[in-house]
Amino acid sequence: MRIDADFVMETTLTIRQSAIISLVRSNGFASVDSLSDQFAVTTQTIRRDINRLSELGLLRRVHGGVEVPANRGNITYKARKILNLEAKNAIAHSVAEYIGDGATLAFSIGTTPEIVAEALETHEGLKVFTNNMNVAIAALRNTSSEVTIAGGRLRHGDLDVLGSSAEGFFRSYKFDIGIFGVAGVDSDGTLLDFNEDEAAARQAILANCRQSFLVLDHSKFGRLAHVRAGFLSDVTRIFCEETPPASILSIIEKSSAELVICKQEPPL
């Protein structure tokens, strides 16, 4: 499959842009001048970075600098897809090693599950079930896979089907592995989401799979959302590219869940 270079440029973040996001999220604000000094580039370059990150909804441009967006809800699917992309790729390749040919897989919505589906392109005879069009299209790139999608009305943005039809769809099968992400993980190990229907669909997957894989990058630890979506101890394996904070790690160690730290490729 040929990938247009302009498309790649539009759908990836530079190492500097990713670092700017992390810095601003840690401190709440950063000035243009301080970012220019820290990254040894011109203020014009920093302003271009800030403009792009603001357009994606990842940060908010303000007079003299940039800050965390005021909206505490979820950001767009397009923006989430490129956020922490290296970490998500590492997670996806690690998950692929735990999946055998011929497996029956249930996928929730989410950018990390979609990237996991992309990483299964060379597996043979997979049966994939999902309520998300992005995951379905990614899985169909593997011509030996059989893909089944929930019926119903597609939601704009995330291109998913939610509600009773999605929950009933997942309850109709018994999956070898359920693969899903979450919006955030609270300090007590509670899995969090922004939408009740998204949480219910994931719970339906969890209740109908033999093994459950939670896939999430380190930014989800401590990220706030208001809908309960289960608990860390509910899952079989947790895939992350970094060791979680001490409080979370303690919870995992006391549970039956296995933590898999996924090695990232060093930047070129």
From TrEMBL:
Carries keyword Repressor? yes
SUPFAM superfamilies annotated for this entry? NagB/RpiA/CoA transferase-like, Winged helix' DNA-binding domain
Residues of the HTH deoR-type domain = 13-68
| Protein name as annotated | DeoR/GlpR transcriptional regulator
InterPro entries assigned:
Carb_Metab_HTH_regulators (IPR050313), DeoR-like_C (IPR014036), DeoR_HTH (IPR001034), NagB/RpiA_transferase-like (IPR037171), Tscrpt_reg_HTH_DeoR_CS (IPR018356), WH-like_DNA-bd_sf (IPR036388), WH_DNA-bd_sf (IPR036390)
Q: Name one Pfam family in it.
A: DeoRC
Q: Does the keyword Signal apply?
A: no
Keywords from the named record: DNA-binding, Repressor, Transcription, Transcription regulation
